[in-house]
Amino acid sequence: MTDYNQIAEEFLIKLRGQIPLINHLGLFPLKWDGSRLEMKASLAPNVNDKGTGFGGSLATVATLCGWSIVTLYLKSQGRDDDVVIRDSHIEYFLPITADFTAITSLPDEGAVSLFYRKMLEKGRARMDLIIDIKQDDKIAMRLTGSYVALEKRR
User: Fold this and answer.
1) Residues sharing a CB contact under 8 Å with residue 40, sequence separation 6 or more, in sequence order
2) pTM over 0.70
3) Are the C-beta atoms of 133 and 102 separated by less than 8 Å?
4) 116 vs 50, 67, 128, 133, 154, CA distance in Å?
5) How far, in Å, CA of 36 to CA of 69, rounded?
6) What are the φ and ψ backbone dihedral angles of 66, each rounded to 5 degrees?
7) ∠56-58-115 over CA atoms, to 5°?
8) What is the CA 115 to chain-centroid distance, rounded?
9) 45 secondary structure, DSSP code
10) Which of 26, 97, 103, 112 could pair with 45 in a Cys bridge, judged by C-beta atoms 3.0 to 4.6 Å apart?
11) Sheet holding 36-41: strands in order across?
12) 43: closest CA among 103, 95, 99?
C-alpha cells in the first residue's frame, strides 16, 4: 500500500532545499492521500500590517499547493516532469486571522486520464485546479489556476 503522507513528507523536505521561500511560509507537514492535498501554514510568518493573512502569502501558498498536487500525481505515476503555473485567478472572501490551510483535489477521473494521456502522447498537458484557502471550515480565498506539465528534456 502506498504511504502518500511519507511521499509528501519527502517531497516537502526536497522542496525546502530547492525553493528557499518555502522555509519562510510556516508550513506544517503536508497531508496527501493520492488525490487530495492539504497544505497547512502558520499565520505568524504570513501576516500583514493589519494582523491578518497577507494576500501575497496566501496566493503563494495556494499556488504552491496546486503545483505540488500536480507534481505529486506525476511522481506517483513514476514521472519526473516540470510543472509550471500558466495562469490563475484569485478571489478573497474573508480575512485570515489564524493558521490556515490550502486544500485542493485532482479533478475528476476523466480529466486526470486525459491529462496523463496527453503527457504520454505530447510530453505536455494542462490541469485546471481550484485551491481553497480555509480557516476552520470557512473559505477565505480561492485560487483557480491552470498548471502545465512539461516532459523534461533529457
Assistant:
1) 27, 28, 31, 99, 100, 101, 102
2) yes
3) yes
4) 43, 16, 13, 27, 19
5) 8
6) -65, -45
7) 110
8) 17
9) G
10) 26
11) 31-32, 36-41, 100-105, 124-135, 138-150, 82-92
12) 99
| Residue 140: burial class (beta carbons within 10 Å; 0-12, 13-18, 19+) | buried
Q: How far is CA 135 from the centre of its chain?
A: 17
First-to-final CA distance of the chain: 31
DSSP 10-28: HHHHHHHHH-GGGGGTTBP
- The C-alpha R_g of the chain, in whole angstroms, comes to 15
